[in-house]
Specification:
- With 325 residues, this protein is α/β, with parallel strands linked by helices.
- It has 2 domains: 115 residues, Rossmann fold, CATH 3.40.50; 166 residues, Dihydrodipicolinate Reductase, domain 2 (2-Layer Sandwich).
- It is built from 10 helices and 15 strands.
- The strands form 2 sheets. The chain has a 9-stranded mixed β-sheet.
- Helix 4 packs parallel to helix 5 and helix 5 packs antiparallel against helix 10.
- It is globular, with a radius of gyration of 20 Å.
């Protein structure tokens, strides 16, 4: 019997990868969608030819899916994830999974009593060229003992962003949205946890939304002794073609630099050299469906990993102090 899969909220286009992943499989039935916007519901109904609901709770009651994908408004995802946990419905959620620590506590409590239940947050950089290439260098010992991690994400805000994004209660903050990628990578790369942290946030460019922090810098100390600094912002200039990403990892024997698609390494044995990116056909979506259909129990982003990286992100976001010009 095919796995019944439903989508709960389509507020973020990342949901498309969930849907496409389901449609590409013959062991998954794409059974229903919920969305709060009436115009979008009609569009989705016509496109996918499946039942469409206004209320996600009604969908769960009537369709009774085995698994769900969630890309609802950030601030609404927590209650959805909690209910899926209660019902034992596996969930693949866009990040952030939740925007409140008490929601995460509730999910964690249920998860501890249901070890087979999968809650996977889409920390997709674990499957990206960026994540895999950096991890390969670290595993080979080419950097030595890690000393520091620097990550800068300069994202393009563009036009037409939804109004909820500029409401901190609904959005959850830039660290939980964008910075969570780096926080998850730090935990994964170095098998460490983040201890002390502090940071500042400002409204630099988005003056029409004065309460929105479009630029945040955070400093962290990790359990393994290394430090990390994140510069996460929506300040990409108009002429920049898209999002840009820079990472510098310094170790006792070498330095790895990553800028967009380019990787360079210099260490005690070799002068600066280009590193060939590592690629994979695997993905978070594929592993989620493999797990839910019983094809494989091997997942890189486990429930425990999802909750730990989410908790670290929420705690750092909570400690960001707003700085006014």
């Amino acid at each position: 019997m095919a796995l019944k899969f439903a989508v709960l909220g389509t507020a973020h286009p990342h949901v498309n990868s969930f849907i496409n992943g389901a449609l590409a499989r013959n062991d998954v039935e794409f059974s229903a969608i919920s969305d709060m916007e009436s115009a979008k519901r009609e569009e989705l109904k016509e496109k996918y030819q499946c039942p469409v609901f206004n209320d996600w709770r009604e969908l769960l009651d009537k369709v009774k899916p085995d698994a769900a994908g969630c890309a609802e408004i950030n601030g609404n995802r927590g209650e959805i994830a909690i209910e899926c946990a209660r019902r034992g419905i596996h969930i693949l959620a866009d990040k952030p999974l939740v925007t409140k620590l008490e929601e995460l506590d509730a999910i964690e409590k249920i998860a501890n009593s249901k070890p087979a239940w999968l809650c996977m947050t889409a920390f997709t950089l674990r499957f990206s060229e960026e994540g895999l290439t950096i991890m390969d260098v670290i595993k080979k010992g080419l950097l030595g003992k890690p000393a520091s991690f620097y990550g800068c994400r300069t994202y393009k805000l563009g036009k037409g962003r939804p109004s909820w994004m500029f409401n901190e209660e609904k959005y959850g903050g830039i660290i939980t949205d964008i910075g969570s990628h780096d926080i998850d990578l730090i935990r994964w790369f170095f098998h460490t946890e983040i201890l002390d942290n502090k940071g500042v946030g400002r409204n630099v460019r988005t003056h029409e939304h004065p309460d929105f922090s479009d630029s945040v810098q955070a400093f962290m100390k990790c359990k393994n002794g290394m430090t990390a600094f994140l510069d996460v912002n929506w300040l990409a200039p108009d002429k920049q073609p898209g999002h840009e990403r820079t990472t510098i990892i310094t170790g006792s024997r070498g330095i790895l630099r990553h800028e967009n698609t380019k990787f360079t390494l210099v260490n005690d044995e070799n002068e600066t050299q280009n590193i060939t990116p590592v690629k994979t056909e695997d993905s978070a979506v594929k592993q989620f469906f493999d797990y839910c259909t019983g094809k494989s129990r091997n997942v890189l982003i486990t429930t425990s990993e999802s909750l730990k990286s989410t908790r670290a992100s929420l705690e750092i976001q909570r400690n960001i102090k707003r700085q006014e010009d």
